[in-house]
Amino acid sequence: MDKKQVEQLLEQVKTGGCGVDEAVSALQRLSSENMGFACLDHHRCLRTGIPEVVFGENKSAEQICGIFTRMLARPGTVMATRVSSAKAGEVCRSFPQAIYHDLAGILVARCAAGGDLVKQPLIVVVSAGTSDGPVAEEAKITAECFGHRVEAVHDVGVAGIHRLYSRMEVLSQAAVLIVVAGMEGALPSVVAGLVDTPVIAVPTSVGYGTGFGGIAALLGMLNSCAPGMAVVNIDNGFGAACMASLIVKGQMKHEIKG
């Protein structure tokens, strides 16, 4: 349950559409739920603005199904990241409404309502190369499931910088940019030097031997001289989308108060 749903519940109490006892019961169910192998944090979205999302790596399909069953019994986003296609197939047989995004490795049973997306601030996900696609797609699908308007710009790495310049119109419309790159990780620095928008840099593990599984890209981004750029962990498209979501929500909250 998120802030909007709590407000709707309280409004129902105010207008007589919901009894006090019923509302109290609903609010009591906001806390954690112990399943033995997992403890679900149903209060997280209300508390932090980001819903609890299942990290599917090393969880069995049976465990993901059990968690989805409990989460679908309540309002809100239901999704799992880092899910293999084999496990996704098993889960989808139990939940036909679930959609599997193969490139991102994300399984979605229910997304957040985004309202009028055209009027929402835009999140743009930029990837340096096709090999960075899975991480970029993880960021894109996550942000979309959180109810945001998202566009993707693919394969505009520094080896052919003219490709980036041809997409500057899209980049200039963004409220926040998620820039994904492997190899030496230069692209986020270039982008941050061209825009007046927050840039979230995502290093990927794509690269040759001295890339050290993304460490070279991570260190390059951390040592960037471009202002207005923050860096998340290697291959963490999900974390970048969470940060972008909070930035956009903060902008929208400021506009409403203004």
Number of DSSP-assigned strands: 11
Task: Give the CA-based shape.
Answer: globular
Q: Do you know the CATH topology of the largest domain?
A: Rossmann fold
- CATH architecture heading of the largest domain: 3-Layer(aba) Sandwich
Low-confidence segments, given as residue ranges, are none
Helix-and-strand structural type: alpha/beta
What does it look like?
The chain has 258 residues and is of the alpha/beta class. The protein has two domains: 27-110, no CATH class; 117-257, Rossmann fold (3-Layer(aba) Sandwich). It contains eleven helices and eleven strands. It has helices spanning 3-15, 20-28, 44-48, 61-72, 85-94, 133-145, 162-165, 168-172, 187-192, 215-222, 237-257, and strands at 32-34, 39-41, 54-55, 78-81, 99-101, 106-110, 122-127, 149-153, 174-181, 199-203, 229-231. The strands form three sheets. A five-stranded parallel beta sheet has the order 8-7-9-10-11. Strands 3-4-6-5 form a four-stranded mixed beta sheet, with helices on both faces. The protein has a two-stranded antiparallel ribbon with strand order 1-2. Strand 10, helix 10 (215-222) and strand 11 (229-231) form a beta-alpha-beta unit. Helix 4 (61-72) packs across helix 5 and helix 6 packs parallel to helix 11. It is globular. The relative contact order is 0.10. The model has no long low-confidence stretch (mean pLDDT 89).
Short key terms for the protein model shown above:
alpha/beta; single chain; Rossmann fold; 258 residues; four-stranded mixed sheet; five-stranded parallel sheet; 18% strand; 11 helices
